[in-house]
Amino acid sequence: MKSVIFACLFAVALAAPQQNPLGLAEVLVDERVDNGDGTFQYNFQTSNDIAAQRTGSVGSAGQSNHQGVYRFLTPEGETVEVSYTADENGFQPQSAFLPTEHPLPAHVYELLAIAEQQRAQGVQFDNRGFRIN
């Protein structure tokens, strides 16, 4: 009798819905519309919070322009979101997570002003930085 009960419990355990043991993402949304004229819409989302939305339109030179946003989680659990435009001016992403140029130190501006004064006075330098005249 104990064997039958154990076998039944074992069968129920096997039949129970399994968790995702490998942490693999499942696709929750995958919507695509291509109008055939260069315009389209795209929407994608997974169970681990990866998502992307994009729309396309015909550009001024006949190219396909894209506007969209994508999102994902970092290993630390932070959500990164990047919005972008891709058109005749290239790929232009925007996000608080993208690196930015550091401001130049004040002395660099002073050196640039000195170099400009020297150019105005006709001072020339060779490709090694030595003064020619």
What is the strand tally? Answer: 6
Low-confidence stretches: none
Q: Assess the beta-strand content as a share of residues.
A: 35-45%
- Judged by helices, strands and strand pairing, the structural class is alpha+beta
User: How would you sum up the major sheet?
Assistant: 6 strands, antiparallel
Portion of residues in helices?
10-25%
Question: Helix and strand string, N-terminal first?
Answer: HEEEEEEH
- Which word captures the global form? elongated
Indicate the mean pLDDT. 85
**Nearest-angstrom radius of gyration?**
29 Å
Tell me the strand order in the biggest sheet: 1-2-3-4-5-6
Q: Helix count?
A: 2
Distance between the termini: 106 Å
Give structural notes.
This protein is of the alpha+beta class and 133 residues long. The protein is 22% helix and 35% strand. Strands 1-2-3-4-5-6 form a six-stranded antiparallel β-sheet, with no helix packed on it. The longest helix has 15 residues.
